[in-house]
């Protein structure tokens, strides 16, 4: 592609740059490859949705980006550094993560859950940590009176919000979300999408989100990357990717669910006066 055809986003330094990635689990006869020759670049400010069948390695890919697991081959560069260097201390200041089965610490209050990473640093006075956690609580759309509640007393939507506030406590520029709207009813899911959209705009975040939910995907994504056949087979704007010829895409985007997810946009299109 020549320079005239590349958009400014494509010319920027990627926040995440994955090249030639291979992930092999098991040894000898038991060895199986999850990723092979996988490439993916994510530019600053994007909301990239990562989709793929169950077991195709979406969560493992997020764990590589977090530096929690090491690829067998290839490189994973995050914010200009090898992801492996992010692991451990300081990681949450660079990458926030909302885990797929993102349980909160059940013995900690909402506020203590949110404050966790900052408190662990041990560099700030308790009242500063508390104020910072209260700011994030508000940011995630919760009220100050929720601060003292225990996780068992929260709704599913509130748990997601607390987990989001916890992921953002250190103001990371990159946020990873693994199935953020799974388990929420359509209303809760819409509210969470709205919150993510607002935070993305306010905080200038780059977001990588694994999702099976087409409504969430169409509501938020600037681009979609499809994981199939052990690699990213296509990445681009949602409506372009939906036209790509592959059995998974056919089923995921053009099956009944896909047509339903697209329907509201069509219904809301302005009616031409005749
Ligand atoms: N630490 C590990 N050791 C061995 N195998 C693993 C490990 N982590 C993941 N796997 C395997 O790698 C494959 C990909 O797992 P992963 O959790 O990334 O799938 P996924 O795409 O997130 O699926 P889902 O949509 O169901 O969440 C699975 O077969 C899983 O069992
Ligand atoms: Mg997963």
UniProtKB/TrEMBL annotation:
<feature type="domain" description="ABC transporter">
    <location>
        <begin position="16"/>
        <end position="254"/>
    </location>
</feature>
<keyword id="KW-0547">Nucleotide-binding</keyword>
<dbReference type="InterPro" id="IPR003593">
    <property type="entry name" value="AAA+_ATPase"/>
</dbReference>
<keyword id="KW-0472">Membrane</keyword>
<keyword id="KW-0813">Transport</keyword>
<dbReference type="Pfam" id="PF00005">
    <property type="entry name" value="ABC_tran"/>
</dbReference>
<dbReference type="GO" id="GO:0005524">
    <property type="term" value="F:ATP binding"/>
</dbReference>
<keyword id="KW-0067">ATP-binding</keyword>
<protein>
    <submittedName>
        <fullName>ATP-binding cassette domain-containing protein</fullName>
    </submittedName>
</protein>
<dbReference type="InterPro" id="IPR017871">
    <property type="entry name" value="ABC_transporter-like_CS"/>
</dbReference>
<dbReference type="InterPro" id="IPR003439">
    <property type="entry name" value="ABC_transporter-like_ATP-bd"/>
</dbReference>
<keyword id="KW-1003">Cell membrane</keyword>
<dbReference type="InterPro" id="IPR027417">
    <property type="entry name" value="P-loop_NTPase"/>
</dbReference>
């Amino acid at each position: 592609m020549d320079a005239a055809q590349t958009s400014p986003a494509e010319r920027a330094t990627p926040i995440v740059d994955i090249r030639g990635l291979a992930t092999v689990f098991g040894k000898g006869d038991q060895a199986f490859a999850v990723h092979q020759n996988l490439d993916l670049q994510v530019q600053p400010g994007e909301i990239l949705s990562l989709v793929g069948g169950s077991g195709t390695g979406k969560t493992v890919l997020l764990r590589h980006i977090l530096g929690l697991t090491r690829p067998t081959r290839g490189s994973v560069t995050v914010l200009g550094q090898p992801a492996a260097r992010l692991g451990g201390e300081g990681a949450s200041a660079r990458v926030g993560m909302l885990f797929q089965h993102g349980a909160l610490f059940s013995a900690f209050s909402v506020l203590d859950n949110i404050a966790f990473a900052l408190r662990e640093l041990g560099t700030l006075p308790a009242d500063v940590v508390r104020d910072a956690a209260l700011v994030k609580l508000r940011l995630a759309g919760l009220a100050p009176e929720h601060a003292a509640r225990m996780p068992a007393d929260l709704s599913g939507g509130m748990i997601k919000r607390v987990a989001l506030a916890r992921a953002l406590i250190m103001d990371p520029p990159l946020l990873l979300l693994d199935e953020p709207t799974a388990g929420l009813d359509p209303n809760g899911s819409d509210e969470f999408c709205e919150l993510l959209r607002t935070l993305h705009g306010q905080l200038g975040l780059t977001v990588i989100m694994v999702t099976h939910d087409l409504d969430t995907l169409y509501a938020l994504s600037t681009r979609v990357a499809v994981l199939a056949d052990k690699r990213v087979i296509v990445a681009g704007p949602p409506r372009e990717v939906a036209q790509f010829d592959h059995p998974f895409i056919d089923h995921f985007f053009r099956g009944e669910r896909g047509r339903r997810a697209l329907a509201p946009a069509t219904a809301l299109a302005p009616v031409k006066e005749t």
